[in-house]
Amino acid sequence: MNTAAELTSPSAEHGLITFEQPLTERMRTFLRVEFLYDQTRFHVDEPTEFSSRAAVAALLEILTILGRGDVRADVLKELERHSELLERYRSQPGVDPARLTGLIDNIDDLRKQLSTAGPQAVNPLKECDFLNTIRHRIGIPGGTCMFDLPDYGYWLKLPAAERHRQLDDWTQHLQPICEAVAEVLWLTREATEASEQVAPAGLFHHFDRNDQANLVRVLLPANGGVFPEISAGPHRFTIRFVRWRGVDSRPVQVNQEVRFDLAIC
Question: Which of 29, 151, 199, 254 matches a 20 to 30 Å C-alpha distance to 134?
Answer without folding.
Answer: 29
